[in-house]
Amino acid sequence: MKTIGLIGGMSWESSALYYELLNKRVKELLGGFHSAKSILASVDFAEIEDLQRKGDWHGLNQLMVQSAKQLENAGADLIVLCTNTMHLCSEGIIKNTSIPFLHIAEATGRQIKSKGLKKVALLGTKFTMEKDFYKNTLNDYNVEVMTPNPEDREVIHQIIYKELVLGTLKNDSKEKIKHIIKDLENQGAEGVVLGCTEIPLLIKSDDVDIPVLNTTKIHAESAVEMALKKENIKTPN
């Protein structure tokens, strides 16, 4: 089993979910007392949020590269960045490390393709919804990406930063996001990508009428598949 290197802390709540998902998937595949081999480099999210607000992506890139190098030096065999938005720094991580980097949008694109979906809604931070790094990757899988209108994008962004990253789950906010998803479904979305690792803390598959692409779960389980050699995997019952 290869050792999975996790860049976490953005937020720590979603990073904790990554750790849980990794270990559950390993146990499901290997059984017995097996658990995931992993190393966590966890950042201070207050520093990250401050740089994001200032638009200092050079500084953010430096912090991500530093964490990635820390994992490589500690013996990680692959790198997983436990956040969607900070994949804006993925190019810097790839250029400055020599171990594989598992991109969350790549893993999600493969999952969307396997489900035969052609048009999906993308929810996340304003950075994820408004910049092209996520859309371009999904477009490579021949997937058309829809995003909410500007007002709804702001609503989702505020829910993420003022509630979810602080561990606050409000039913009113859940209903707002469900309404936004329904609007996008009515506009032709065949599925919805929860492109923020905190949104799955609030929205579950049973909450909406179209397929939910939980990027946290997809990313974590893809990391396990990379970490395990094929001959070690058994089909779960």
Describe this entry's structure for a reader:
Helix 4 links the parallel strand 3 and strand 4 (101-102). This protein has helices spanning 12-30, 45-54, 57-74, 90-96, 104-115, 126-130, 133-139, 150-162, 171-186, 215-227, and strands at 4-8, 38-42, 78-81, 101-102, 119-123, 144-146, 191-194, 212-214. With 237 residues, it is of the alpha/beta class.
The gyration radius over C-alpha positions equals 17 Å
Strand content: 5-15%
Structural class: alpha/beta
Q: Give the termini separation.
A: 21 Å
Silhouette: globular
Low-confidence stretches: 231-237
List the helices and strands and how they pair.
Layout: E1 4-8, H1 12-30, E2 38-42, H2 45-54, H3 57-74, E3 78-81, H4 90-96, E4 101-102, H5 104-115, E5 119-123, H6 126-130, H7 133-139, E6 144-146, H8 150-162, H9 171-186, E7 191-194, E8 212-214, H10 215-227
Parallel strand pairs: 1-2, 1-3, 3-4, 5-6, 5-7, 7-8
Helix pairs in contact: 1-10, 3-4, 5-7, 5-10, 8-9
